[in-house]
Amino acid sequence: MQQPSLSALTSIVEQIARTGDPRTVMSNIVQRLRDIMHVEVCSLYLCTPDFQHLILAATEGLSPQSVGKAKLGLDEGLVGHIAASLSTLNLGDAPADDRFVFIPETHEMPYHRFLGVPLLHLRKLIGVLVIQGREREPFPQEAEAFLITVASQLAGTLSQLQSKGGWYEKKSTRGGYRRFHGLKGAPGLGLGKLWLVRPHLSLDQVRAACTAEPEKDKTAITEAIAAVSEELESGSGHLGQHLPGDLHALFNVYQMMLQSPELSQQITARIDAGDNAPWALKQTITAMAEQFRQADDPYLKARAEDICNIGQRILNQLISRERPSMETPDEALILAGELISIADLADFPLHQIHGIICTQGSTLSHTAILANALGIPAVMGVEQFEPEQHKGAMLIADGHRAECVLNPPAALLTEYRRMIDEEQRFMQGLERLRDQPAVTTDGFTVSLLTNTGLLADATPGLQRGAEGVGLYRSEIPFMIHDSFPTEHEQFMLYHKVLEAYAPRPVSMRTLDIGGDKQLPYFDITETNPYLGWRGIRFSLDNAQLLIAQIRAMLRADVDNNNLRLLVPMVSRVDEMQSFRRYVEKSVDALTREGFAVRMPEIGMMIEVPSAMLLLPRLAPYIDFVSIGSNDLTQYLLAVDRNNPRVSNLFDHLHPAVLVALEQIQQQCEALSLPVSLCGEMASDPAAVLLLVAMGYRCLSLSAYNIPRVKLLIRSISRESLSDLLEQSRQCSSEAEVRALVAPVLEQVGWRQDKRPNLPDEETEGAQ
Q1: 459-468, 536-545, 560-569: lowest mean pLDDT where?
Q2: How many CA atoms within 13 Å lie on the side-chain side of 220?
Q3: Is the pTM of this model over 0.70?
C-alpha cells in the first residue's frame, strides 16, 4: 500500500470546507480517502442523535443501498467495539473475529483486512471511520497512523454536520418541526409567526464597479449619510413611544459612528480612486468592521455588527429603494433576519414583537442589550437557520436555552404557551421587589449592582432595582473614533452616566485596551495577547491617555459625587502605586484650574491570580476590590472561554475558583476592604448561594437578572447554607458542585426554566 501524504489530507479538509450539504460532504470524505489510501472500501459511521446507535452514513465500496439503513448498537460488531472502547482496531481477517457481525445489505463478506478508528470531538464520540481490503493481513502501521490523523482532523467538521441534521432524519415523524441552537441574547420565551426582516440589498451583494461621475457619487454619499442621520434622529417610531429617555442613547451610538470623519473620508477617498459609491461604501464598512472583529473581547467584537448596520442603512438610502411595507397583521411576531438593528425594531409596534432571532450577532450586540431592556426574548448567532425559507411559520424564541423552535407540534405548542403565561405572571410578581432590599431571611443584606457598557443600560438597571453600577466599561468611546477621544468628549459621556445613577455609586473601569483589544489607529501585534500589553499595563505606558481619562471622569463627577475608579488587570503593587499618584496629581491640577473635584474611592479588579496573592500589600493603595469572575476563572483554569475546543472546561464553579473566591473574601474582610463580584457568576443561582454562604455582600450583574437573584436571596437563610458550603469544599469537580446545590435550589422553589418534555419521535433528529 502506498503511503499517503499530509498534503493529501490537507486537500480533503479544504474540499469538505467548501461543501455545505451534509450528505455531499460525507460522500466526498469516503471517496477521497478510498482513492488516496488505495483501498477497496472506505465507510463512515455516525452516532444517531440519541447516541445509542451507529448508522452507516456514507460508503465507497459497500452497497450504496445500505447507507442510512445499516445500524449497529454501541459495542455491537467491530464498529460498535471501536465506539465503545474508543480505540483503534486493525485486523487481518475481520470475518473470523468473534466480534464480527455480518449485515447482509452491506455485501462486505469479500473484505478481510479491516482498520477502524473512532471519531472524537471535544471528548464526545462522533462516529467511526473504517477502511477495508481483500488481503488477509492487517494494514501497515503507516496507514493506521494516517487514518488516525485524518480522524482527528475531520471529527470537528463531522460534529458540525451532526448538529445541522439532514444526514439522518425520520421524515414521517418530523412534520417540519426543527430546533436550532444559537447564543443567548435575552432571556424569556416568545411565540409568534416568523416575520422576515431583510434589507433590499445587502452589503455582501454589492460588487466592484467604477464610477463615471465621482462628484455625483460623493454628493450621493453625503446625502445618504444625512438621510440616515435624520432617520435615526426621528426614527424611534413605534418603539420610541415605549422607550425610557436614556434608552435612546442606543440610537446616539449609531449617530456617533455615522458622523465619524473616518467614515465619510474613507468612502470619498475610494470614490476619488475610481470606485462607485456602493462599492466604496462596502469596502469602507468592511474594513471598519474588521477592526472591531480583531478584538478577542466579545463586547468589543460585537461593535462590528453596529458598523455593518450603519453601512446597510446608508446603502438603502443610496440606492433609493423603498423598504418593504411594514403593515403587519395585529398578531404576535417573531422578528428574524441576519442582523436586526435597533432601527429595524423601531419599524414595529412593541406589543407585536414577541421575540427576536438573528442568524448573526452575539450576546453583547446592541440588539441583545435592547431586547434585555424591553424584556423581549432574543437568540443570536443561529447559524444553520434560514428564516427566508420559513416566512409566516410558527416560531418559538427560547432565550433561556438559546434556541428557536420551528413549527412546534401541537403538544409542544400548548406546553410553551403554558410556560409563557406562567413566566409573565412570575415576572410581573417580581416588580414588587424593585425597591426592596436583597436580604436573606436571617438578615444578611446583599447589594445588587448592574454591569453596563452604554448609557442606554442605565434605564433597565434602575427600573429593575439596581443599587448602582458595579462595572462601567469605558472602551467604547475609544473604539468608535478614528483617533483617541479628547478629554472633553469623554467628559460628556461619563457625565451622562454618572448623572443617570446619582446618587448611586458608579464604578468606572479605566481603559481596558491593548493586546487582544486593538484600536484601528493604534496597532498592537502580540504572540499571546491575553498575557500581553493590556489593561493598566497599557495605560501606564501611555500616561497621557490615562491622565486625560482620569481628568474626564473627575470632572464628570462634579455635582454627582458618585464616581468610583476601578483599575483593570492589576498584577503588581507598583501599578496601583503609580495609578494612585496620577489620580492625586489630577485632583490637584483640576482644583487649581477651578474645578470642584474630589478624591474618589479607588478600587482594583482581581482578575490576575497574582493580585489575589498580593492583596495585603496592595491594600494600602486601594479602597475596594472588584472580582472579575470571568477573567479570574479563565486565568485560574488556563481556559479560553471563547475557544470552542476548550470552552466546555470553563466553569466558575470549578473547585479551584471557589477556593480562590473564599480566600479573597476572607482577606478582604481581614483588611476591611469592601469587595464585590461581577461577571456571569453573579447571575448563576448555584453560584449565588455559595457566594452568600462565603459572605459576599455585593454582586454586579445584568439588569434583567437582578429581580430573579433578589428573589432567590430573599428566599434563603445564610446560616442554612453553611453546611452546603462545607460540603462544596469536598467536591472534586464543578459537576459535583452543581449536583450538590441543585436540591437546595429546588427546595426554595427556584425556577429552572426546564425544557418541555417531548415524545421520543418528536425529539429524534431535531438537532
Answers
A1: 459-468
A2: 19
A3: no
Q: HEC string of 145-201?
A: HHHHHHHHHHHHHHHHHHHHCCCCCCHHHHCCCEEEECEEEECCEEEEEEEECCCCC
The amino acid that residue 183 corresponds to is L
Take residue 458 and report the three cell numbers written for it: 442605565
Residue type for 27, please? S
The number of angstroms, rounded, from the C-alpha of 633 to the middle of its chain's C-alpha atoms is 17
Residues designated as active site:
366, 678
The torsion angles phi and psi of 240, rounded to 5 degrees, stand at: -60, -25
Residue 402 phi, psi (nearest 5): 55, 55
pLDDT in tens, 717-754: 999 999 999 999 999 999 999 999 999 998 888 755 54
Pairing label, strands 445-452, 438-439: antiparallel
- What tens digit of pLDDT does each residue of 154-206 get? 887 777 666 555 555 444 333 478 888 888 888 889 999 998 886 556 777 77
Count of alpha carbons within 13 angstroms of residue 368, beta-carbon side: 27
Assess whether pLDDT exceeds 80 at residue 222. Answer: yes
Give the span between the Cα atoms of 490 and 480, in whole angstroms.
12
What are 124's strand-pairing partners? 121
Q: How far apart are the C-alpha atoms of 311 and 173, rounded to whole Å?
A: 43
460: Cβ contacts below 8 Å, ≥ 6 apart: 247, 372, 373, 703, 704
Integer CA distances (angstroms), 608 to 64, 181, 542, 569, 698, in order: 57, 33, 21, 6, 20
Q: What is the CA angle 113-106-4, rounded to 5?
A: 40
Beta strands 89-91 and 113-121: pairing type? antiparallel
